[in-house]
């Protein structure tokens, strides 16, 4: 199998869209769009993110030891594109949750402290201990097969 076939197969897994953000003192906030995120444990509350070795945010995460996972709402495609490097002339203002930078309007803002990191292949996995969460009641932005999508409400027919 070649790299393209592998990427295409992985793109068949429907995911939400997140922006991972961190803040380094004196350097400001850094972020990246990611769909490689999952929950790991309820007790203690842990999540994992996966960061490519060439990503600029990698060294920032290793230095700051904090991050947030911002699960984007269906009206935040532009935010995703900014942090994916597709829109270069726009910026995003950040709020803070438990001292970590978060994106206003995200359906979930998850503040984390790095508890461990593991290098696997061409990525580093960061395990984050969740320190706080803020939720919004909105629909998620979804990514499938290389395209942004949104959920459509199921129509329930009563007889």
Describe what this molecule looks like in 3D.
- The termini are far apart.
- This protein has helices at residues 3-11, 57-64, 77-83; strands at residues 15-16, 18-24, 28-34, 37-41, 46-52, 66-71, 95-97, 100-102, 108-120, 123-135, 141-144, 147-150.
- The chain has a seven-stranded antiparallel beta sheet with strand order 3-2-6-9-10-5-4. The chain has a three-stranded antiparallel beta sheet with strand order 1-11-12, with no helix packed on it.
- Strand 11 (141-144) and strand 12 (147-150) form a beta hairpin.
- The protein has one domain (3-150): Pnp Oxidase, Chain A (Roll).
- 15% of the residues lie in helices and 47% in strands.
- It has three helices and twelve strands.
- With 159 residues, it is α+β, with helices and mostly antiparallel strands.
- Pfam families: Flavin_Reduct.
- It comes from Niallia endozanthoxylica.
- Residues 10-150 form the Flavin reductase like domain.
- Keywords: Oxidoreductase.
- InterPro entries: Flavin_Rdtase-like_dom, NADH-dep_flavin_reductase, Split_barrel_FMN-bd.
Q: Could you spell the SSE succession in H and E letters?
A: HEEEEEHEHEEEEEE
Q: What is the averaged pLDDT score?
A: 92
The CATH architecture designation is Roll
Alpha-carbon distance between the two ends? 50 Å
Poorly predicted ranges (pLDDT <50, ≥5 residues)? none
For the largest beta-sheet, the strand count, sense and barrel status come to:
7 strands, antiparallel
Just give the CATH class. Answer: Mainly Beta
Strand order of the largest sheet: 3-2-6-9-10-5-4
Query: What is the helix tally?
Result: 3
Helix/strand/pairing category:
alpha+beta
Spatial extent as radius of gyration: 16 Å
What is CATH's topology name? Pnp Oxidase, Chain A
- Coarse morphology: globular
Summarize the amount of helix as a percent range: 10-25%
Strand content: over 45%
Number of domains: 1
Number of strands: 12
Report the CATH superfamily: Electron Transport, Fmn-binding Protein, Chain A
């Amino acid at each position: 199998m070649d790299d393209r076939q592998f990427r295409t197969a992985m793109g068949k897994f429907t995911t939400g869209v997140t922006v991972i953000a961190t803040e380094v003192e004196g350097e400001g906030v850094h972020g990246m769009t990611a769909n490689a995120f999952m929950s790991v444990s309820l007790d203690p509350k842990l999540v994992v993110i996966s960061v490519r070795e060439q990503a600029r945010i990698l060294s920032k995460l290793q230095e700051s030891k904090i991050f947030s996972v911002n699960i984007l709402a269906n009206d935040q495609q532009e935010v995703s594109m900014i942090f994916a490097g597709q829109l270069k002339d726009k910026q995003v203002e950040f709020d803070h949750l438990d001292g970590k930078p978060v994106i206003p309007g995200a359906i979930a803002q998850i503040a984390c402290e790095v508890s461990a990191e593991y290098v696997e292949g061409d990525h580093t996995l960061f395990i984050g201990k969740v320190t706080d969460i803020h939720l919004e009641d909105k629909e998620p932005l979804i990514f499938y097969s290389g395209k942004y999508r949104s959920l459509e409400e199921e129509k329930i027919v009563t007889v």
